[in-house]
């Protein structure tokens, strides 16, 4: 959908539908709503007086203008109670109204921005409106052939404004479209079936990003990984016929001497569990085990187009985890890139094995910070549910930055402890560490394992096992791949740019 800004008055906009926002506790009409109501001879006030529209959160009502306005329809959109308004509710409401209009086969709509919707900066309000409208309309229908001509799409959304706000709104729309396009990119990668999203295909997608200005992509093959000693990653890959790939994306937006931020994303394009095979139920969803890698690729793509003055490195170890006569087995010992040895207890605890080599490799950049993103543990879903990202790490400042970004983007983060005592659970009798500490504190022991491979650099681990894929529609996240942490990572990077630098 194309979004653009236009100078003018909403009451005079020629559109299939004009959108007005209301609060549940709003006592009287004002601004555009009052002007439009007067031109329509009380259509809106009558509707509200009869309580046919109560402005509850994301409630939508449509009335026809009967040629009293250039627009064909007036769409009333509820924002709930004004005291409870926030950016997340704005995103949800605009996603809902766009989905509603699409279901009516409305192709284009217009709205003005009520700066009093929430106590936030104008930039944040615009971003929330645009994110909700675009992200809520996402559909993955690449493989639909039957009834394809019946698929409905919104084509255009115009924001009407006074002239003094034109440049501000136009600039923010452009930036937000870049970020939402990156979310779409990540959602598409995760949604693709594993036969169409192999490690090689994922690497080719990364190479496309590498064609952008100031971005370089390098892909290490199996031979090179063997030379480097990435035996932890290669152990996981040993059971698959698909060649593993170690994807390196380097974006140089800052000074060459400036330490980069390294983003590491888990890239399991399919996870059967290996010899410790998973149950058949929902195994089809294991194509999503590369959600972390997709998010990192999306974040770097957005950062490069936004031309952020930072140096950023993305590392994505990509492979399948399959059972075969060549597959690694419980009881095997793997020598990682770092030189540390790992006893394999469970081949379905493979994510931490491929991340171990990637996190160790990150140290060669002497990074300012390392953030890894992974659908790592089912235990995180047990602990925090489907909607929350588990966060663990070694640096309080970096954790605070992530919390701030999460609050702004609405991608929920909750910190779990990473005390030294948890490391006792991953000590091996015959190697340095074991890749599973058992059922107790599974998310924490997985992070404790990862911590052994990051060195002394500031590091945070984000476990996205819950929110990476949703089994039902959630406001601006349609059922399926969410693209979670793309917006969070981009917001964190943008905050680093905004922050006064010493």
Task: Describe the protein in words.
This protein is an alpha/beta fold and 502 residues long. It has 2 domains: 2-179, Leucine Aminopeptidase, subunit E, domain 1 (3-Layer(aba) Sandwich), CATH 3.40.220; 192-498, 3-Layer(aba) Sandwich (Aminopeptidase). It is 34% helix and 20% strand. The strands form 4 sheets. Strands 7, 8, 9, 10, 11, 14, 15, 16 and 18 form a 9-stranded mixed β-sheet that branches. It has a 6-stranded mixed β-sheet with strand order 1-6-5-2-4-3, with helices on one face. A 3-stranded mixed β-sheet has the order 12-13-17. Helix 3 (87-103) runs parallel beside helix 4, helix 8 (231-237) runs antiparallel to helix 10 (351-362) and helix 10 packs parallel to helix 13.
What is the C-alpha radius of gyration, as a whole number of Å?
Answer: 24 Å
Query: What's the total helix number?
Result: 14
CATH topology of the largest domain: Aminopeptidase
What is the CATH top level name of the largest domain?
A: Alpha Beta
pLDDT < 50 stretches: none
Main sheet properties: 9 strands, mixed
Mean of pLDDT: 96
The total number of structural domains is 2
Helix-residue proportion:
25-40%
Shape, per Cα inertia axes: elongated
Q: Span from first to last CA? A: 41 Å
Structural class: alpha/beta
Strand content: 15-25%
CATH homologous superfamily of the largest domain?
Answer: Zn peptidases
Q: Which second-level CATH architecture of the largest domain applies?
A: 3-Layer(aba) Sandwich
Please give the number of β-strands: 20
